[in-house]
Each structure stands twice: as structure tokens, then as C-alpha cells.
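ping. complex inputs:
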Amino acid sequence: MSPERWTREGHSGEATDTGPPAATAAKPTREQVIAGLRATSEGGADLVQLLTPEGERVSHPDFDIDVTDAQLRDLYRDMVLVRRTDREGNALQRQGQLGIWVPLLGQEAAQIGAGRALKPQDMAFPSYREHGVAWCRGLDPTEVLGIFRGTDHGSWDPMATGFHLYTIVIGNQCLNAAGYAMGQRFDGRVGDDDGEATMVFFGDGATSQGDVHEAMVWAAVYDAPLVFFCQNNQWAISEPTERQSRVPLYQRASGYGFPGIRVDGNDVLASLAVSKWALDECRHGNGPVLVEAFTYRMDAHTTSDDATRYRLADELEAWKLKDPIERLRVHLVREQIAGQDFFDSVEAESDELAARFRDYCFNLTDPPPQRMFSQVYAEQTPQLAEQEREYLRYLDSFADESLAGGVH
Amino acid sequence: MAAPALERPTAPAGTQTVTIAKGLNLGLRAAMERDPKVLVMGEDVGKLGGVFRVTDGLQKDFGEHRVLDTPLAESGIIGTAIGLAIRGYRPVCEIQFDGFIFPGFDQIVSQLAKLHFRSQGRLKMPVVVRVPFGGGIGAVEHHSESPESLFAHIGGLKVVSCSNAVDAYWMLQQAIECDDPVLFFEPKRRYYEKAELDPAAEPAPLFSSRVLRQGSSLTLATYGPMVRTCLEAANAAEEDGHDLEVVDLRTLSPLDLGPVYESVRRTGRLVVVSEAPPEASITSEIATRVQQECFYSLEAPVLRTTGFDTPYPPSKLEEGFLPDLDRVLDAVDRSLAF
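pong. complex structure:
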């Protein structure tokens, strides 16, 4: 191999059999990228779907579900309100009111379907994008604002709500959920319709993390009542799903010895039906189950991300046609389940919620400096108590000065 | 700081001679008998009884759901222990060797340490992570490290180390009773050293250091496997007419330096001894605080006898890496020469 070959490796046309692999040889063309993305975006033949992108109700031999008209309207309302607060969160970040926002745009059906399948006795372990699941667990949408404004790390009570705190390190929560679900089993709380189950939420990128793999090993060997709910939104910041796996993610479950199902994550009915089935399997002691909700992140990863750098406009346009809210709206109209009055009332409710969401954000107060030192431990350490005393004394010295200054 | 109240008797009545390993075993047994929520989990802790047999016989008596032979993954052990703690259990995780804790480091630092703070106290994390640590057993790589300073650096964790069978018995039970996560470092090369254990005696508080030997010439502060080395050094120094005080730190985070300050104010000299690499360590923390608190009492700078800022060496070199009696005495001589 002559040295000059190395210097030419960037020129793919000049690569030969005996030369080193050309750096650009593996790089697909723009057309190949688009073709590849379109292929994965179809979801495959195993995709469970109950509502087509055109809003038509279809049946499925294994995962059909009976829902009343009222329930359908409720699911629509859930998705609209959750999307509205999500858009407000994005806007508040742009206005400098939030340090960052993590959008869920496009993933409403996956989250509402899964969230509404959970029962009060269940436990949910979110990642950090699960504003829709939070809504279903009865959290007020404002409760997540403190995290992104920087006033707290999570204001809600995980045990009272059955909704664990947001977890930002990718995949950590899967092991915590597996342990919790092991506890449900050790406590003898599985075995019938009223049994308990746990659902853990993570993304396609998280499936590359060791913790997710370990959680699947643990859940399997301890028969934990745990539903792994993977929202495959196609992108882990800028890395596509193909960068995480050579096989469809739901197929990985077979390697751990439990079922894996791919559901249309933009179809709230399918997401609800599959989640209910998976949770029931766990309640009866037949868990764990992996659900891959095949969906799409229509916004950036976070407000710090620029999705236009790595994905193509065609892709976004294609997914817009599968919008989870629009397809249910069309269904409601077509089947005359809801009229304009209903849509108007949801719109009005969403305006009110948005206003309240904004007000709450503007009025969030900064925590007192004592918060830094409180609740680090169940039993405070002498060192920390001393550091707190010293810091407060230091702050007090400024208070005296400002008071003195105010007299002038 | 008050020790958690423990019911007694919790072990076979009467004083008995036990090793550190047996003290730990009896401590675990007592904790498991007292509270059905206490779980033991780790690799090989069940049928085998742990690679050091610390959990010997526990699975036979408490069952597979109280003593979990887990899959082989440290992040999995810690991560599921956290979930079990959220569920109301009190897991005691065994990490087989110090150098294997790093795959579990993420869960310890990112979740275990922070969930109480993050949840504003709503989630308690009563998890104990037992780590046989330190060198001197001629082991291969990753089996002889002293990573305790890494954990002492993390807010939200507590770190302790026992040095004898009596402390092993009591401190482990107290750590299990503690509602905070405790990293429990066990001096593996001392596992089979014996002491008289009286289960009816009053234990010292968990987060407290203790003066093991009184003296007036110089203070030795140490913990874990180096306690015995320092006691031997003090005995040797006595022959040279030097009267050394030895403090067993026992708790590394929070450090209980009150007895050390008091000692240094009397002796004017301090040598801190640890196997761990010295840079940014517990020994540097002690040196800093002692010079802050005892500046006018010091007759010499605080000196340290430690391992080196290297990866742990092949075992044929560990004799040089580990502080021994002579290296401790050398530091004592240097301090006394000031």
C-alpha cells in the first residue's frame, strides 16, 4: 500500500480494491438518505394500528379496543391540552423565561395512550419529555416548569402521583423502574386484574445505553411487572435510529425472552390498546413487555438543538401527514362523534390553560438559599450545617449594606 | 450525632471471638431478622455466600427474595436497589471488589446520591453499598483499589469504613438503619482478623471517629486497613520513646474531625495515613481542615503517608505502594524533626 493512497482516501472515485477504505465511500447520497428514512418511517408490517393517518378506524386481530365516544373526545382533549402547554413551554424558553424546554410535539398520542392505560396503583418512571404522561398521572402541567426555569428538580410527590421524577441521565430510570417492579412482585401485588404494574419511558437513543440492557435482563430474570415503553421518535438529538440498532427496536425483546410489540405511536387508540394489554400482562404476572411506539419528534430535541442541521424538510413534511391530533380530529368529525362546539370548547380550554401556564411561570419564585442545603440528606451532616451557617452569614453581610444604601 | 436506636440482643448471646467477615455476617443477619424490608443483593451472595463468604448462610435462612443472587452487572445492582428503596425496601448491595464499582458509579452518583435532594426529601434512599477495598492480598488488577475519596466528594452520599470485627458488626447494622445512602468500605485484607464481640455492649455512633490509642507526641489519623498498621507503628515508636495517639476515623463523609482537632491541639503534630492516592483525597481534606482549625497548635506541617497517584500496581510492587510500618514511622520522624 503506497503512502499516497492514504492521501487520496477522500476521493471516493479513486479508491481501489487494495487501498484503504475511502472515508466517503460509506456516505450515502442525499437520495439514499431520503429513501432510507422513508423506509424506516413506514413502521413495517408488524405495526399495530387502529386509526389510519386518514382518521379511519381499522381493526386488529390481537389489540382491538372498545372505546366510547366520550372516551374518544377525552383522548382528543388530552392531546390538544398537552400540545398547547408544550408549545407554550417552547415559547417561554424563546422569551427567556425558561432555561430550556424539551418539546413533545408529535408524541402526544404515544404518551396519552400509554398514560391513560395506567391505573392509579401503577408506577410510571419518565425520562424528561413525558409531559403527556405527567398529565395523565394528574400532575398540573405547571408542575414541570420549575425544572426548566431552574427553581427545582421536580416539585411533585412521586409516590402520591405514581409518577417518578424526571430522569435526565439517559436510561438510568429503566433500572430504577426494574427495581421498583421487582418490589411489586416481592410484595405479592401481581396476579390478578387489580395487580400492580410499572411502566418506564425512554427513547430510541436510550436503547444503546447499558442501563436499558441491564434493566431488560433484570426485569426478565425476576419476572418483573414492567412495561418498557420506548418512544422511537427517530432521532437521538442528531443521531438517527439506524445509529442505535441494526434491528427494529421491538425485536430486541426476544433476546431477553419477553414480547416486543411495535405500535403506531401517532395513533392514540393503538397506543392505548397495546399499553393496556402490556400492563395487564404485567398485572397478571406475565411481564415484562417491550412496547416500541413508532413516532416522530416533530420539534427539535430541546430548544438548544437545531434540527435543520441534520434532518431533511421532506421527512418532517411526511410525518406532518401522520399528525396524531389531526387524525383523531378527522375521525371525530367523520363519525360525527364531535361537532364544532366541542372543538371550540377544547380550544377555549386550551387558551385558558396556556394563560395560566404562562402566569405560573412568570410568578415562580426563586427558592431561598437554604434550599441548597436542605434535604441533601435525611440526616443533615455537621459539615453541611456549618457551610449553610457560613453562607447565610455571608449573605447577611450584604443585606446590611443594601439596607444602609437605602437610607441615602 | 446520635446513633440509630438498635434493639438488642441481635446476635447469639454472650461475648464471642469473631473475624471482621463474621462480624459483618452477624450484623447482616441481625438487620435482616429485625426488618423484613432489608435485602441483600449482589453477585454470588446467595449459594456461594459471597466471594469472601460475608453473606454465608443468609440465603438458606432468609430465602431467595431476601438474598438475591443478581445478574452480573454493577449498574444493575445499584439501579434496581434504588427502585427497591423507592418501593420501601432497604437493600444492601455487595460489590465484589473495589475496582468493579465503576460500572455502578453512574447510578450511585446520578441517582442514589441525588434522589433525596431532588425529591425534596420525599424519597428516602436507605441503600448500603458494601465494598471490600484496599490492597495487600496479592490480587490481579482491579481488586485492590481505594476509591473511597471519589464517593466522599459527592453530596448526598455518606461513606464509612470499619477496621475491626466489633465495628463491622455494629456499623453495618447502623448503616442499614440509616435513611441516607451509605458506601460501606470493608478492609478486605483484614477480613479474617479477630476481636471479641459482645452483642450486649453499647455501640459507638456510626458517624463518629474514635481514639484507639492515647498518646502525647504525635497524632496518627487513619481508617480501614491502615488502622492496624498505625497501631503497630505506635507500638514500635514507643520503643523509641515516642508516645503516639491513633484515631480511627471510621466515618469518611461526613468526617468527624473533632477528636482529631482535640488530639492535634495536644500533640501539635499530625500524620494522616491511607492506602488511597493522595491527590484530591480524604487525606488532603483532613490536612486542609486541620491547618484551618489547629493552625496555632501545629508544631509541624500535616504530613501524609499514602499510596501514590498511580493506577494500582502489579501485586509484586504493592508492598511499595501500600504504606507500611516503616513508611509511617518515617513520616513520624520527619514530623518530630520539625
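The longest strand of chain B covers residues 128-133.
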